[in-house]
């Protein structure tokens, strides 16, 4: 390995930790389904005299623990273990209640827990030996190891995403485009601008009132600025670290960001952006699309690109005469694209206590490998029992898209059977992903996704001083950007923002980002 970055600071804020525990991409965020399996355990597994006791941190996105679920009992029988499922929180870790194995959603969480001394360091050679199939896949994304390497040691098993159904592109009201005389979905920023002005000025809903807007945003998103595709058209994404001519700089303060703000400011002044953009969320802007208030939103590909996608289906149920069309992000002076999480998914960590328990460590890796390669195990933990909890979308199919059966469509319903609670997420091999994914959705992702052009140059790694500055700088950015776009302060105040951002910790973070890039990510 290359020389690794210096030891991370112990000052990461608990708020960062909580955010990462609930963030990230679980099994539900991956464009794959697990293979078919039988309902029973594998009778061929040789039982040991006494089951190995494992404390298992349940899936980070699950709201709570379900004791003695169907999946828990199945795992216990198959692997000759006794499982105690627990919910992982900052408080439980701080009190010393560290599960033997659990998942984290962000490199910052791995760093924070490593600083507390509760994690076991791992060896890439051990991963290669214990999980050879998965290692062969993730080795192609080797930089992911660098995101959780501290003091020349690896502290987590990184997961990866290849085709991401949650990548964002544009979902347009096609009936509105038709009404204002636009015959195709906009492709360039100029075409985008023409369409949203028409939506605001030409009464596309035909009610004779001036009550429509082109678009709205999500200025209060927890990690960035909203209006991702517009910033992407200028070649930046606020709060991300970008590499430019060998130098790492933050998208919040780049000159291209000021250009994007100028465009958004003009649109707001002309009545094209909904004045409620400051408080809107993805849920609220979907409702505004349904209810004839705006004509375009950024939407996840899985929710908007296919005829049976969730947002398309919801629109039809609420507004049967409406038509939607999916399109790429607009191309502008800096290219095109939207916020992209890159190949990073979640991380699996093992308690430091396990390093002195070789029998338990071997058992954990037996389960890890099974959740990566064994169809029966993957299926049971992520989908449940075929015919009871799920089935293939096409009748009689043995591969392809899957769907949950009635009564199990919601994750909370599946949790009662233990489905998801014991899934270890995106450690399935590439071969399984390809075999058990939706070909139509795969093609849509390849068509509409702009990944990886607008992702973080450091793969969202935690910097030593993130805990001191990151949340504060994100809030500062959101405040200034909302005020600039809405016209509350002049565009020239962007320069004041840049100076304040730098003086309040941005310069220190930029220095650390460049050091990390040179030490760990520069190829």
TrEMBL record:
It comes from the Bacteria. The keyword Signal applies. The keyword Acyltransferase does not apply. InterPro entries: Bact_solute-bd_prot1 (IPR050490). Keywords: Signal. Transmembrane segments: none annotated. Residues 1-23 form the signal peptide. PANTHER family: ARABINOSE-BINDING PROTEIN-RELATED (PTHR43649), POLYGALACTURONAN_RHAMNOGALACTURONAN-BINDING PROTEIN YTCQ (PTHR43649:SF33). This is ABC transporter substrate-binding protein. It comes from Paenibacillus graminis.
């Amino acid at each position: 390995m290359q020389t690794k970055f210096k030891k991370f600071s112990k000052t990461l804020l608990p708020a960062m930790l909580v955010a990462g525990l609930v963030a990230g991409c679980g099994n539900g965020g991956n464009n794959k389904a697990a293979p078919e399996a039988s309902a029973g355990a594998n009778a061929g597994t040789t039982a040991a005299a006494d089951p190995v006791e494992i404390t298992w941190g349940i899936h980070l996105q699950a709201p709570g623990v379900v004791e003695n679920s169907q999946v828990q009992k199945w795992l216990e029988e198959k692997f000759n273990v006794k499982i105690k499922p627990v919910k992982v929180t900052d408080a439980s870790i701080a009190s010393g209640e560290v599960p033997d194995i659990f998942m984290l959603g962000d490199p910052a969480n791995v760093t924070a827990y490593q600083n507390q001394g509760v994690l076991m360091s791992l060896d890439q050679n051990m991963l290669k030996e214990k999980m050879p199939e998965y290692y062969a896949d993730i080795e192609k994304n080797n930089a992911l190891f660098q995101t959780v390497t501290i003091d020349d040691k690896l502290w987590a098993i990184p997961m990866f995403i290849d085709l991401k159904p949650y990548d964002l592109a544009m979902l347009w009201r096609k009936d509105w485009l038709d009404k204002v005389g636009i015959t195709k979905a906009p492709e360039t920023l100029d075409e985008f601008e023409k369409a949203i002005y028409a939506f605001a000025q030409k009464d596309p809903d035909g009610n004779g009132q001036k009550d429509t807007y082109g678009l709205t945003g999500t200025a209060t998103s927890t990690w960035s600025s909203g209006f991702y595709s517009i910033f992407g058209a200028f070649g930046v994404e606020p709060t991300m670290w970008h590499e430019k001519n060998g130098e790492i700089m933050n998208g919040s303060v780049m000159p291209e960001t000021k250009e994007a703000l100028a465009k958004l400011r003009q649109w707001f002044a002309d009545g094209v952006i909904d004045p409620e953009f400051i408080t809107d969320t993805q849920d609220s802007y979907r409702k505004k699309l349904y209810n004839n208030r705006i004509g375009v939103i950024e939407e996840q590909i899985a929710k908007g690109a296919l005829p049976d996608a969730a947002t398309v289906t919801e629109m039809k149920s609420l507004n049967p005469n409406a038509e939607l069309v999916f399109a790429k992000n607009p191309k502008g002076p800096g290219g095109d694209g939207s916020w992209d999480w890159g190949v990073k998914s979640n991380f699996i960590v093992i308690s430091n206590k396990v390093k002195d328990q070789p029998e338990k460590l071997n058992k954990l890796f037996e389960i890890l490998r099974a959740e990566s390669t064994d169809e029966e195990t993957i299926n049971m933990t992520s989908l449940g029992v075929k015919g009871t909890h799920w089935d293939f979308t096409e009748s009689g199919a043995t591969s392809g898209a899957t769907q949950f059966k009635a009564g199990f469509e919601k994750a909370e319903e599946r949790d009662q059977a233990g489905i998801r609670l014991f899934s270890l997420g995106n450690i399935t091999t590439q071969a399984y992903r390809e075999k058990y994914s939706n070909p139509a959705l795969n093609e849509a992702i390849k068509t509409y996704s702009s990944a990886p052009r607008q992702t973080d140059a450091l793969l969202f790694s935690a910097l030593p001083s993130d805990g001191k500055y990151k949340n504060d700088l994100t809030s500062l950015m959101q405040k200034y950007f909302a005020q600039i776009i809405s016209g509350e302060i002049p565009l020239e105040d962007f320069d004041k923002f840049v100076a304040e951002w730098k003086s309040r910790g941005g310069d220190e973070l930029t220095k650390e980002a460049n050091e990390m890039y040179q030490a760990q990510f520069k190829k």
